[in-house]
Amino acid sequence: MELAIFALFSVLALASAVVVISHRNPVYSVMSLVVTLISLAVLFVLLGAPFLAALQVLVYTGAILVLFLFVIMLLNVEREEPAGGHRVHKLIAALAAVVFAAILGSQFFAAQGSAHTAELTPDAVALVPLARKLFTTYLLPFEIVGLLLLAAVVAATALARRSAPRDREEKA
Amino acid sequence: MTVPAVWYLLLSAALFSIGTIGALWRRNAITIFLSIELMLNSVNLSLVAYARILAERSPELALDGQAIVFFVLAVAAAEAAVGLALFIAVYRNRRTIDVNRLDLMRW
Amino acid sequence: MSFAFAATLAKMGAWLAVLLNAAPVMLWVERRGSALMQDRRGPNRVGPMGIFQGLADAVKFLFKEDIVPSGADRPLYLLAPMLALVPALTTFVVIPFGPTVEVAGRSVALVVADVDTGALLLLALASLGVYALVMAGYSSNNKYSLLGSVRASAQMISYELALTLSVVATLVPAGSFRLDRVVEAQQGLWLGFVPQWNIFPQIIGFVVFLVAAFAETNRLPFDLPEAESELVAGYHTEYSSMKFALFFMGEYMSMTTLSALAATLYLGGWHLPGLDYTGAWWLVALKGMGVLVGKIALFMMFFVWVRWSFPRFRFDQLMRLGWKVLLPLAILNFIGVAAFTVAGAS
């Protein structure tokens, strides 16, 4: 059962990831990324992290990617012209990535090749231990992340304003 | 039947590489950004997989991977907000977000 | 077929019966209700008092010509109406409609997905609803549709914050994401006659939730994505026949699920003080579902009442309300509830 779900959603994630980077139309790229992220959320559930799976869908697909779509439609981003860019450059990029993937994969396999996961127990997927960890061991990072999000809100508002406040005063 | 955790790690490596290709290959700033999000998520997958591996070896370290993914999600949200605001600002000045045509800093 | 699988199927069937009937029934309620408020008759030809109007409309939708605009982005255009039903048809899985009952010697929780992340899962699935609107508007190749979906995306992201914060505040006293715990925490009486429902201590959160729910379902006074006086019909301008009907059903179904959520979080869900929840399992399930549907109906009536009473907001007013009024109120409510709960526990 787990094998079947893993096979289905890993293939789905890979296929949609390829569409993300290859489709000319950014709207399709975003939609494919939605499929990738939901597949990853399913894999998170398989790995015993239902909280992160729900959070992944809520934060990533429910908010971040909608923001992407909003910006794409706001800017009316045109489709990318097929020509342009250096073919050699692209080839090197692809080659480098494949080599990188091979090295990464082989290292993973060498280090964890024997790691076999046991069946999940209800205790392993309970939320309370994770919550306790977040609010004790990781309390300082947690607060810092809160501060970071506030800074991001301010920064995004400042960047996306139509004109600087000083200009507006001069016009008035 | 259970799936060996290393398969999840391999999938994460593959997704990361796909994201890398996208980030290097594309010229549309939005698609590059999406590729970077893809890379972030593949790392998340590997973190959760490691959390699963560690759960059997040392229970007190079991949830650290999951906690870190939580922070990655929060940072990704902040990054997306600022990044997209930057795109809007750039588009307003240059009327394009094709990274090859944003060349004012080149010489 | 295992027992658990059969039980899950049966529970899903019960919910689907409620949800699929929501659209035709609400169509009638909405039209008769508005007629009542405007002192006219409303539909009265099909069946006694026009109660079969929904059926007639369904037949009409089926026989209308199905048009795909020539400039449409075909795959997205076809996918959008299907996606409109996904959040509406999935979120109900975590809403409980009764206590745990004994069926043939086995205990069965009267909730489809009995998971720890209940409320979070519901919010996650509900947040996917915006994609249908955005895709519909983008793929229609129509400027009014595009404007509608740009509005929809901004509106739904903005109000999701307030909605989520008010939902989270109701989870604090229960100390769990599980909605059955939330219902459990609301059983009992204050002073012997006031039910311990969250609506009383968390009235601010309730109001925020309700306003945000109107915005999330794109109902008047927040129906800016389809504002017919400015945008023709907004994101579904180019849709006809059954595709339009799917958007229509999606709207009523999301209203139903949000009403069910409101009833569960603030009005004690399936539980009614004074009602006896012991006895045969099917009787208990029937009672639980009946009480829940009654509370849902209350909220649906409220939706209709508000729709025909208020004019539409302007977009800047909508944004101001969401970010400068509802969000601070929701945060204040959350802090208050958290402080009160901690003080009560220590």
Shape of chain A: globular
Return the structural class of chain A.
mainly alpha
Helix content of chain A: over 70%
Instruction: Count every beta strand of chain A, where a strand is a DSSP E run of 2 or more residues.
Output: 0
Low-pLDDT runs of chain A:
none
SS summary, helix count of chain B: 3
* Quaternary state of the chains: heterotrimer
Number of helices of chain A: 7
What is the first-to-last residue Cα distance of chain A? 68 Å
Radius of gyration of chain B: 18 Å
What sequence of helices (H) and strands (E) makes up the elements of chain B?
Answer: HHH
| Beta strands of chain B, count | 0
User: First CA to last CA of chain B: what distance?
Assistant: 59 Å
Residues in β-strands, percent of chain B: under 5%
Could you describe the 3D structure shown?
The complex is a heterotrimer of chains A (172), B (107) and C (346). Chain A is mostly helical. Chain A is built from seven helices and no strands. In chain A, 76% of the residues lie in helices and 0% in strands. In chain A, helix 1 (2-22) runs antiparallel to helix 2 and helix 2 (26-46) packs antiparallel against helix 3 (50-75). Chain A is globular, with a radius of gyration of 22 Å. By secondary structure, chain B is mainly alpha-helical. Chain B has helices at 5-25, 29-57, 64-94. In chain B, 53% of the residues are buried. Chain C has helices at 3-37, 53-63, 74-90, 118-126, 129-139, 143-174, 179-185, 203-216, 228-231, 241-266, 281-307, 315-345, and strands at residues 101-103, 106-108, 189-190, 194-195. In chain C, the strands form two sheets. Chain C has a two-stranded antiparallel ribbon. A two-stranded antiparallel ribbon of chain C has the order 3-4. Chains A and B meet through helix 1, helix 2, helix 3, helix 4 and helix 5 of A and helix 1, helix 2 and helix 3 of B.
